[in-house]
Design goal:
Layout lengths: L8 H19 L5 H19 L4 H8 L7 H8 L1 E5 L12 E8 L2 E8 L5 H6 L7 H16 L4 E7 L6 H5 L2 H12 L6 E10 H5 L6 E5 L3 E3 L3 H9 L5 H7 L4 H6 L5 E3 L10 H20 L3 H13 L14
Parallel strand pairs: 3-4, 4-5, 5-6, 5-7, 6-8
Antiparallel strand pairs: 1-2, 2-3
Family: Belongs to the AccA family.
Catalytic activity: N(6)-carboxybiotinyl-L-lysyl-[protein] + acetyl-CoA = N(6)-biotinyl-L-lysyl-[protein] + malonyl-CoA
Protein name: Acetyl-coenzyme A carboxylase carboxyl transferase subunit alpha
């Protein structure tokens, strides 16, 4: 069952009313077709009004939806013969990041992504999608292998952030993320990153340095959560909605700032409503990106990646005008 979001309540209520009228039509000898038709038109208009005018906080809610598709969900639909690889060869295996080798339209690729759970038990096992250092070192091991064997790297980003616990810090959390940023900048194969849910801070960047970075329409990407920003700015986490509106964390915002290359549309209401259809939309973007990047040489791939990130945050100051 799909969990109801706050802003979707009018839509859900209207759908229930239409369903009730259809059941009455089936069980009783009453023709309610005209009333049903009117309500269906009203439903269509209501969906367009709500889904095409979502506010930043609404998108945060969708990005965090418990039924939102995960990395493994998309792997099932997009790739063939996925073979998961485990461990960082230093400490252990971090289940908050999954990765392995697969085939995409007959071509070998390496797929890596954050993985959260869909229930309490799985979330605990996967640490709610918040990786430890060994998760990032596992990802780096797989990326180095991909670079060696000339396999494109595809990363799915979906994390609140890297795990901030004491044990993670003791094992070198910051160094592990920094190492990934450094190494990913120099790989000679195409790297495509897709934010499928939450892209939180360095936890997202640890597998987020790519030649192409895309975001699903209702995903978010930021240096801190809205709740965290509200706690810092106004000493009140309940101001998260206000923070989300001012932080520029939506796909549209990041596209305008040149941080991502494109926005991947979602099925009406969000990706959780139809994983298969959503995978088809991602597939078309992914295929096009791989074809475009395959025409670049190794040197061009590195240069394009470097130039992309060198431009982020650059600004120009205007010369002060003389007051007459």
């Amino acid at each position: 069952m799909v969990q109801e979001l706050e802003f979707e309540k009018p839509i859900i209520d209207l759908r229930k009313k239409i369903h009730e009228l259809k059941e009455i039509t089936k069980k009783a000898d009453v023709d309610l077709s005209s009333e049903i038709e009117k309500l269906e038109r009203r439903l269509q208009n209501l969906e367009e009004e709500i889904y095409f005018n979502l506010q930043p906080w609404d998108r945060v809610q969708i990005a965090r939806h418990p039924n939102r598709p995960t990395t493994l969900d998309y792997i099932d639909y997009l790739f063939e013969d996925f073979f998961e690889l485990h461990g960082d060869r230093v400490f252990g295996d971090d289940e908050a990041i999954v990765g392995g080798i697969a085939k995409y339209k007959g071509r070998p690729v390496t797929v890596i992504g954050h993985q959260r759970g869909k229930d309490t038990k799985e979330n605990i096992r996967r640490n709610f999608g918040m990786p430890h250092p060994e998760g990032y070192r596992k990802a780096l091991r797989l990326m180095k292998q991909a670079d060696k064997f000339n396999r494109p790297i595809i990363c799915f980003i979906d994390t609140k952030g890297a795990y901030p616990g004491k044990a993670a810090e003791e094992r070198g959390q910051s160094e592990a993320i920094a190492r990934n940023l450094f190494e990913m900048g120099g790989f000679t194969v195409p790297i495509i990153c897709i934010v499928i849910g939450e892209g939180g801070s360095g936890g997202a960047l640890g597998i987020g340095v790519g030649n192409r970075v895309y975001m699903l329409e209702n995903s978010i990407y930021s240096v801190i959560s809205p709740e965290g920003a509200a706690s810092i700015l106004w000493k009140d986490a309940t101001q998260a909605k206000r923070a989300a509106e001012s932080m520029k964390i939506t796909a549209t915002d990041l596209r305008e700032m040149g941080i991502i290359e494109g926005i991947i549309p979602e099925v009406r209401g969000g990706a959780h409503h139809n994983v298969e259809e959503q995978s088809k939309i991602i597939d078309s973007v992914l295929e096009k990106a791989l074809i475009e990047l395959s025409h670049l040489s190794q040197e061009e791939l590195i240069e394009q990646r470097y130039d992309k990130y060198a431009k982020i945050g650059v600004f120009f100051e205007k010369e002060p005008t003389e007051i007459k």
